[in-house]
Write a structure and sequence with these properties.
The complex is a heterodimer of chains A (317) and B (563). By secondary structure, chain A is an all-alpha fold. Chain A has 14 helices and no strands. Chain A has one domain: MetI-like fold. Chain B has 18 helices and 24 strands. Classes of the chains: A mainly alpha (317), B alpha+beta (563).
């Protein structure tokens, strides 16, 4: 297990370095630079030169990369070229919003997806399965942007149930915070709910036809225990994997959702930074995202061993 | 070589309602106007200051709040279409930062609803010496900065010097050839120039005229934007990167009794449909830059008023004439017929039916433009509003005269946002009739600017938001040494006209000179001006006192919620 862990950590470090290099080069390969994006229509060559000099953009890529890496290693992620604010504080204030949004989205998606998946598997061939499949198809095919817009038009504008935009920090007012986040989390969670539902349904169908379920039924266990304790628990391994793998999709979904609902999250920060060619912000968010992605995948792998003891045994062998 | 001559029948009024009549009477008008520059574009409509159901195409600036009808307190939420850049008047370049500055950084001068400069922190317009080399500005007294410091001539001097010297200053070029700033007493500033520079007063009615707290400048230096301090009805409270900015009422403001709101929050919502939805749901009470597609529905909404103000800028097509080396390098022709022959450029201009464009694409909310000078500008004239009529037959003839085979293929670079693409597609269909095969090359905005500066384009669609003084809308774009002459155009005649106009302090002479500038520009067409945008602002009817002026800045500072 220890060797396995060390091996995974080493792989993670290499991935992180590669991701940093790719983003550093990739963002500079894009046409335009922060000075142009900052100056917009109101630019003159002298100002552009001054901006490039001020942020070291006139230096070689190698020098710029070394500066970024050496500063990042000390925890200094630089200053936003557009707003002048420290990138570290920008990320620290955006991250909790996206984490909270994602956790809520996963919770909502989990409840809807697992619930619908179990119902579809148990009531196979009936209208319940048909309805669950139709919902899953809708969840997968409808873009977040459109869904978000519709939710604002019907649930915020017409019915006034939820705010259409804005954010209140959890520790300022927890109720207001949830009130502002439920609609975005629901929108963000729809795609994931559909994926979870389909996965739960298919895993449950496999499990329900397995020998151990027949044995459990033969022992006279009530259906609730057979489904909940035996079939569902075994199906959840695949579901947990899916949630881990879908994290990337969740973050990219958060980009759109945060823009629609004007949430000061990480996704909005990222996409705006790309449009504004705010190199320090882009590099820092990719560094943080890559780290988070790697750590979460690592945790999911470790979680396998908790859910399925056979993996732990094999890992230790 | 056929040129568009002033007495040609190809020019006449393009206003919708005048077009048919003008077509019938064109010959008579042309004869009557021999030697003059034909008919001007009519202003879209008379100004009006109120009314939610105002027909499209009329300016609705809004009215000041009646103190007896508003209650004290409350937080106003403004949905902004883009994130302002640095909240530092010296370094800021974004139009949107002006919305925020207006509430917390007053200027020496401001703009009135008639686009004329009026005093704000000054007490009167500047007294200009007879040689035009000295401006004396009298200042208000008893004014405090938000940090308690005293506003005086020394503070003005520090701010102006910072504009002139700070690395990356976006104000330096706006201030012109200033040699020194003198402060004979705390309530007087004297600006000395090496050459007369007429646009200076208008520049002082924008960010260059904002006065920063000397204490905050000393403390924060180049990081002033992290906690900006000026004189204003509100003061900076907080900023969440790329999401929101909050300002709160400043009790030290000299006219604090007129301020009704407790705070204003600017929330960044980039999608226009979602801004409109926030306005309807009441999550925002003001939304800027409404889409022309959403506006008709909002105009019918009983809870919303749509303020309209015609932009001082323009949307146009820039033709790469001599910018094949990239801006800042020696001019070199692109070598295409469009770059070499003015007749081909004239043909392209004649292929565009501006009237149909404005009507069909923008529901008549935007207005036709054929020059960089807005009909709302105090420097407008008949000559400045002459407009070539849509004449595809003439365009084809010009192409034949220039020896160009039709359809003549032209590549146009444009921004990849939906509005720009719609415009490009409309143009594509339109210019076909005139013998052009327009190929659309959509790119992202920052990439567009890059291609523009590198001279990597044949034709490019982009606009300019506009400034009060025409010099700021023309010189930099078509002057040989202009910092944004991305067309690579060079005409000694035009350069002389522009230099004379910027150095003249005689208003009538400047009006005449800018008329001549437009005539010359329409002969050479380095930029084909197409239309002027209308700044559309949605305002909840629960709110009173929101105003929009021709500079496009939404005035929120003295608004209040209705009782």
């Amino acid at each position: 297990m220890r060797r396995y862990l060390l091996n995974r950590l080493w792989q993670s470090l290499v991935t992180l370095v590669l991701a940093t290099i790719v983003v550093f080069v990739g963002v500079r390969a894009l046409p335009g630079d922060p000075a142009l994006a900052l100056a917009g229509e109101d630019r003159d060559p002298e100002s552009l030169r001054a901006i490039r000099q001020q942020y070291g953009l006139d230096q070689s890529w190698l020098v710029q990369f070394w500066q970024f890496v050496s500063h990042a290693a000390r925890g200094d992620l630089g200053q936003s070229i557009r707003t002048g604010a420290p990138v570290r504080s920008m990320i620290l204030s955006a991250l909790p919003v996206t984490i909270e949004l994602s956790v809520l989205a996963i919770l909502i998606a989990g409840v809807i997806g697992v619930g619908a998946g179990v119902v579809a598997a148990v009531r196979r061939g009936g209208p319940a399965e048909w309805a669950a499949n139709a919902l899953a198809l809708l969840g997968l095919s409808v873009p977040h942007f459109w869904l978000g817009l519709m939710a604002i038009l019907y649930l915020s504008v017409a019915l006034g149930l939820f705010p259409a935009s804005g954010f209140v920090p959890f520790f300022t007012n927890p109720v207001d915070n949830l009130h502002h986040l439920i609609l975005p989390a629901l929108i963000l969670g729809t795609g994931l709910a559909a994926v979870i539902m389909r996965q739960t349904r298919s895993s449950m169908l496999d499990a329900l036809s397995a020998d151990y379920i027949r044995t459990a039924e033969a022992k006279g266990l009530p259906p609730k225990a057979v489904i909940g304790k035996h079939a569902l628990r075994n199906s959840l391994i695949v579901v947990v994997t899916i949630v881990g793998l879908q994290l990337g999709a969740l973050i990219s979904g958060a980009v759109v959702t945060e823009r629609i609902f004007a949430l000061p999250g990480f996704g909005k920060l990222t996409v705006d930074a790309v449009f504004q060619r705010d190199y320090p912000v882009i590099q820092a968010v990719v560094l943080v995202t890559a780290t988070a992605y790697i750590v979460i995948n690592l945790l999911v792998d470790l979680l396998y061993s908790v859910i399925d003891p056979r993996i732990r045994v094999r890992g230790e062998a | 070589m056929t040129r568009r001559l002033p007495l040609s029948l190809t020019r006449f009024t393009v206003s919708n309602r005048h077009r048919k009549a003008a077509g019938a009477a064109a010959a008579a008008i042309a004869l009557a106007l021999v030697g003059t520059a034909c008919s001007p574009v009519q202003p879209a409509a008379n100004d009006t200051s109120s009314g939610a159901q105002t027909p499209s195409g009329q300016d609705v600036f809004g009215e000041p709040a009646d103190a007896s009808q508003v209650k004290q307190g409350g937080t106003l939420t403004v949905a902004l279409s883009a994130d302002p850049d640095k909240l530092d008047p010296t370094l800021s370049r974004s139009l949107y930062s002006r919305y925020v500055f207006h509430t917390m950084c007053e200027k020496l001068y401001d703009l009135g609803s008639d686009a004329k400069v009026v005093p704000q922190l000054a007490t009167a317009l500047p007294t200009i010496s007879s040689d035009g080399l000295s401006l004396t500005i009298p200042l208000k007294q008893g004014v405090k900065f938000a940090d308690g410091g005293t506003f005086d001539s020394n503070a003005v001097k520090i701010s102006l010097n910072r504009d002139l010297t700070l690395a990356g200053s976006a104000r330096k070029s706006e201030l012109g050839p200033i040699t020194s700033i003198e402060t004979p007493d705390p309530k007087t500033v004297v600006i000395k120039l090496s050459k007369p520079f007429a646009p200076l007063t208008a520049a002082l009615a924008d960010r260059a005229g904002m006065v920063l707290s000397p204490a905050a400048v000393a403390k924060l230096g180049a990081n002033f934007s992290n906690a900006p301090v000026c004189v204003g009805p509100f003061k900076f409270a907080s900023r969440v990167a790329q999401n929101s900015i909050k300002v709160v009422k400043d009790p030290l403001y000299y006219d604090a009794a007129k301020v009704h709101l407790d705070a204003i929050e600017y929330r960044i919502i980039t999608d226009s449909s979602i801004r409109s939805a926030n306005l309807k749901s009441g999550d925002a009470q003001v939304a800027d830059s409404l889409s022309t597609q959403d506006t008709p529905a909002l105009q019918k909404d009983d809870s919303v008023t749509v303020l309209q103000s015609q932009s001082l800028g323009y949307q146009g097509l820039t033709i790469n004439i001599g910018n094949s080396n990239g801006i800042g390098n020696p001019l070199k022709s692109l070598g295409t017929p469009l770059a070499k022959d003015p007749r081909v450029r004239q043909a392209l201009a004649l292929s565009i039916d501006r009237d149909a464009l404005v009507k069909s694409l923008f529901g008549g909310l935007n207005t036709v433009a054929c020059s960089p000078i807005s009909p709302k500008s105090e420097f407008t004239s008949d000559a400045a509003q002459v407009c070539p009529a849509h004449d595809p037959a003439k365009a084809k003839q010009l192409l034949a005269d220039a020896g160009v085979n039709t359809p003549y293929k032209v590549e146009m670079v444009t921004s990849n946002n939906p509005d720009s693409l719609r415009l490009a597609q409309a143009l594509q269909g339109m210019v076909k009739e005139g013998g052009f095969d327009l190929v659309i090359k959509p790119v992202e905005y920052a990439a567009l600017l890059d291609q523009q500066d590198r001279g990597d384009f044949e034709l490019l669609q982009l606009g300019w938001s506009g400034r009060v003084d025409p010099d700021a809308n023309i010189f930099n774009f078509v002057g040989t040494t202009g910092s944004q002459n991305v067309s690579g155009y060079s005409s000694p005649d035009l350069d002389k006209l522009l230099t004379d106009a910027r150095q003249s302090t005689d208003q009538a002479q400047r009006v005449k000179l800018y008329g001549d500038v437009v005539t010359k520009l329409q002969q050479d067409d380095p930029i084909i001006y197409m239309y002027r945008q209308r700044n559309l602002t949605g305002v909840s009817k629960k709110l009173l006192g929101i105003q929009v002026y021709p500079d496009g800045v939404i005035r929120t500072a003295f608004a209040g919620f209705a009782k």
